[in-house]
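Consider the tokenized backbone below.
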């Protein structure tokens, strides 16, 4: 039996999902195109795969997306990374002109580096 990754803990995935979607929505306001955003699991799982952070063969896209959200939730709840910091990071990627897939890959890369420094 394998251990369940901390990032799949429900408290982290639920909070991470809410924080990520809220940050994405607020970033659309900042760039002048306000709309409600629900970041797609496909986009989040692809970001994990691109960065080679987690590539276990038995994890489907949904699980990888939950791990992404869990990392955001862990950073927010346990490491004290502020919502403003997360939103600013996401907005910076959008303003750099990245496509959606690249935005969330670069956001994850930056967040993962910050988490590694704090853990």
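A designed sequence for it:
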């Amino acid at each position: 039996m394998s251990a369940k990754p901390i990032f799949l803990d429900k408290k982290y995935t639920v909070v991470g999902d809410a924080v990520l979607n809220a940050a994405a929505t607020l970033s659309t306001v900042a760039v002048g195109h306000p709309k409600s955003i629900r970041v797609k699991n496909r986009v989040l799982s692809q970001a994990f795969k691109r960065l080679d952070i987690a590539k276990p063969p038995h994890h489907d896209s949904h699980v990888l997306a939950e791990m992404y959200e869990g990392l955001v939730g862990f950073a927010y709840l346990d490491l004290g990374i502020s919502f403003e910091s997360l939103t600013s990071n996401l907005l910076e990627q959008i303003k750099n002109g990245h496509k959606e897939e690249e935005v969330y890959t670069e956001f994850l890369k930056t967040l993962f580096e910050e988490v590694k420094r704090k853990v």
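The mean pLDDT is 86.
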